């Protein structure tokens, strides 16, 4: 009897143990399955996060690269004297805070138009590494500087204005004697000299020597000694080559408003609102010579005999032709003002297709 009871109790105990084991194993299996599912979900989440993070990083890098063209842009306006450069530069000064760029004046010691080679190297390094002043517009009376010669990876955007060579010379001649409306009380170097330009040419004085017109060519030619040799044919060709290949835009004084309009359409980061500002402000009348007499026909004929005038005029007309071509590609308002025609291109047949 007791043995039968013992066997029955043992079987009950064994069954209970087996049942508990099976329950424990089932629970463990369920937890393992849930763990696997959670792990898979976690891996999928991590994968999505990595993908999203990679996409975000790529977008940020892409955005940074898109902004870098604007944020790092450098404009160099190596302004030729007496070409309405002050009027133009003051528009930039008025717009710089609103449009978020910097304007810096390059003052070369002794009012020289060329810099020693070490100074050129320092200038190139400074403007390309001075990140706090980017984007920036640098202006000054200095000849073209070739950044490629110094191994610079960043290339500046060169712009300039040219003027009819005789008009520029006459303006400078009377400016030295009578000053201008920009600083009317400043006594100029030739103050008190009443000799007219006609009289100066007739007497063959130094101030009206045609060689004094040799300035726009060397400014666009650069720092090579040949650039500053009056009448050098190579200098003229180099100036024309630089105008065509190294300058974004070279306008002419007689079309200053159009020059500003083209820059506004092309470089809106710098010149957004420039045309309207120039039109409505008094900037177009800055640096106007106080007293100036137009030359007589005999004086003009004498000047036109000069090889220097002929060469400088060739560069000026070359600039006019190039500027006219640029204007033809622009749109115009009903008032005849130059404006951006909008996007005239598109991308198509893009491969591979995005998923």
Taken in chain order, the helices and strands follow as HEHEHEEHHHHEHHHHHEE
Major pleated sheet = 5 strands, parallel
Give the count of helical stretches.
12
| Residues in β-strands, percent | 5-15%
Distance between the termini: 80 Å
Radius of gyration (CA) equals 37 Å
Structure description:
This protein has 355 residues and is α/β, with parallel strands linked by helices. The chain has two domains: 1-71; 72-339, P-loop containing nucleotide triphosphate hydrolases (Rossmann fold, 3-Layer(aba) Sandwich), CATH 3.40.50.300. It has twelve helices and seven strands. The protein has helices at 2-71, 85-99, 117-129, 165-178, 197-202, 216-221, 233-245, 256-266, 268-271, 274-280, 297-304, 307-328, and strands at residues 74-77, 102-105, 136-139, 157-162, 247-252, 331-332, 338-339. Helix 3 (117-129) links the parallel strand 2 and strand 3. Helix 7 (233-245) packs parallel to helix 12 (307-328) and helix 8 runs antiparallel to helix 10. The protein is elongated, with a radius of gyration of 37 Å. Belongs to the sulfotransferase 3 family. It is found in: Golgi apparatus membrane. It is a single-pass type II membrane protein. Keywords: Disulfide bond, Glycoprotein, Golgi apparatus, Membrane, Signal-anchor, Transferase, Transmembrane, Transmembrane helix. This is Sulfotransferase family.
